[in-house]
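Async update (no meeting this week)

Hi team, since we skipped the sync, here's where things stand on the single-chain job. The sequence we agreed to prioritize is pasted below, unchanged from the tracker. I ran it this morning and attached the output directly underneath so nobody has to dig for it. Comments welcome in thread, and please keep replies under the output.
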Amino acid sequence: MGVPGHTTRNAPAELARTELFAVDAYLADFDATVVAADHDQGRVALARTAFFPGGGGQPHDVGTLRWDGGSAPVTKVKRDGEHLWHWVDAPEVPTVGTEVAGSIDWPRRHLTMRTHTALHILCGVLWSEFQLPVTGGNMEPGKGRLDFPLEGITTEFGSLLERRINDEIERAREIVVDFVGRDDADSDPALIRTAANLIPREIDPLRVIDIVGLDKQADGGTHVVSTAEVRRVVVTKTESKGKANKRVRLEVTDHD
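Output:
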């Protein structure tokens, strides 16, 4: 298995060549060529990109594109049809064939990575302790939430989860990424509980994030390389969102 910020095992060659965020979450700067330009919407598609386009509850990256004679903030990134489009805040977008240098807003990306990993730790704790799957979730840099099929939830339960999450952070569990064939993925209970079987069959192999010894899920987002890099988590709220649907909200922090 490969580490998210270093090497990745079994990555499809075309994906590794074009979607750099999928094989190296720590790549903040890259060069690329504009392959499509949409002047009406103020967006461009690149031959390759390190910008995460959003998905699975994780927000898209922002940053900057620079080219000969111009530069512009990247305000939005989204998969649309065959391209990953980058919306740029500029009077004119660079034309097809232009060489550009891209830079991710690294502090924001890294905070998002820490948050995403914290949510996976929460998911792993709930599964290992209570065999509870996740029914929904969302995040923004620094904070996020997950929903679980619980009949009831208390403040004390939230405090228990916070302690367990921070225990796993202190264990400095390695986090690795792998690409797993669908037949193997669909037979793995750890992946089936996160609804891997609902992902279209044409997505083969599946990208899998493994917090070694705790949690393993099909996932397309960016993560840190060790639970220790999350630093610390605070469970800020537990709430009911209906019968047998309870929500846990958390934040990542640098302090105790």
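Quick observations from my side:
The chain is about 20% helix and 35% strand.
Residues 106-130 form the longest helix (25 residues).
Reply here if anything looks off.
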